[in-house]
Amino acid sequence: MTPIKGQATDGRQRRNRSEDVLEAAVRVFHKKGYASASIQDIADEVGVLKGSLYHYIDSKEDLLARLFEDSAGHFMAMLDEASNLDAPPVERLRRFAYACSYWYLQNIERVTIYANEWKHLTGKRLKTVVGIREDYEARLASLIGEAKEAGEARPDLDVNFATYFIFGALNGLPEWYRRRGPDPAERIAESYAGLIVATVVGGGK
Amino acid sequence: MTPIKGQATDGRQRRNRSEDVLEAAVRVFHKKGYASASIQDIADEVGVLKGSLYHYIDSKEDLLARLFEDSAGHFMAMLDEASNLDAPPVERLRRFAYACSYWYLQNIERVTIYANEWKHLTGKRLKTVVGIREDYEARLASLIGEAKEAGEARPDLDVNFATYFIFGALNGLPEWYRRRGPDPAERIAESYAGLIVATVVGGGK
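YS: structure for the whole thing
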């Protein structure tokens, strides 16, 4: 990709602009919906000409795929950090649950797109994103499985169902967060971490 | 509304046809998405002329609103049945959780629409549906609140957050159910009921 004449080719500046484009895409996709949004809308949001945008992306779908890959990178980093803690599995789960809930609350627009728009991906891109999603689910399932093996979860817990249950609960955050009002994200994230741990540990029967 | 000439005006037949139209709308909205679906698509699915459909509905949006009202009717009936049980709150919660999970699994297409398409409603219809949704959330919150008051839930449980958490988890069912394969709905519903009860009861900390 050739840099635009007269623009700095410095790597860091290029990276920042690429992030600006991603953030602009988040705002535009969230506001208009992915299907209705155009590359022109995103160029307008960034404040550049449409032609310049193609230095950073190949297509609208490319942008959506990158959004998923970038978000998945954040999730995996949070899972890694929690998994590397020197603590019992259930405390590692709590740490991840807090970090993840907090990140969701700080990135409501992006999470809404993550939860709803992945069906618009096609072919190889869809396959990649579904793969990332399955890896991520498998990683959380494995952490829950460790808690179960350590005897910290209830014995009849179905690890896979618990994993899907928890992701569903997290993906529901954007549905109500704005309506709810004045609770700080820290408090909600702490409460959600408690609910996630309870789901796994809980003495239901 | 005048019945079509030559058609039976018998109440039961009319009601059945009205249900057929609703079921056809579920299939069409699920397959094409509400935004892309047309009244013609629904008429084709029912197997009637487009004009005949207007004896049962006013517009596409009218159909979407009825879908919500009809689904909410089922939810409320399940809540009523569970609430009227002569059992401790947590057992009433388990009964509702089982019934609701099972209903979701039997109505995956409808639930997908319920979770994703309500934003297409406008004006008075949107207000009605949001109102129904809030009533329904308040009813579940009140059942969870009873469990807490009875000392069956953990003392630091935030009843509202728990309610949103549980609805999120339920609304996530359509995301993975088809992928998962051979587990019978009864087993998943029982597992989800256990997870919902655990979320409320659980000794997280």
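YS: worth flagging: The longest helix of chain B spans residues 123-149.
IM: good catch. Also The interface with chain A takes residues 35, 94, 116, 154, 156, 158, 160-162, 164-173, 175-176, 180, 188, 191-192, 194-195, 197-205 of chain B (CB under 8 Å).
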